[in-house]
Amino acid sequence: EIKVVNQLPKDNLRRVNGAATDDKLLGKFREDTAGELKLYINRGYTPILKIVLPELTIYINSKEPGDVETWYQELMQI
Fold first, then answer.
1. CA gap 37, 13 in Å, rounded
2. Which of 10, 15, 52, 71 is 20 to 30 A from 33 via CA?
């Protein structure tokens, strides 16, 4: 499953391995409902590309307008 969303899961997001700073979330996280997550997030920027795999869910975004939509279109063609 691949979709474009406007926010991350909010139920008890916990960093397992990586970095959580004021402007970025990078690495492995866990969330009560979603389970294991990999985040590559620039805080304060939307939209966010959500990629659901059997073993984990990936969230990624960009500071550049249009990047997420381009990635989505490219992945949908695979």
1. 9
2. 71
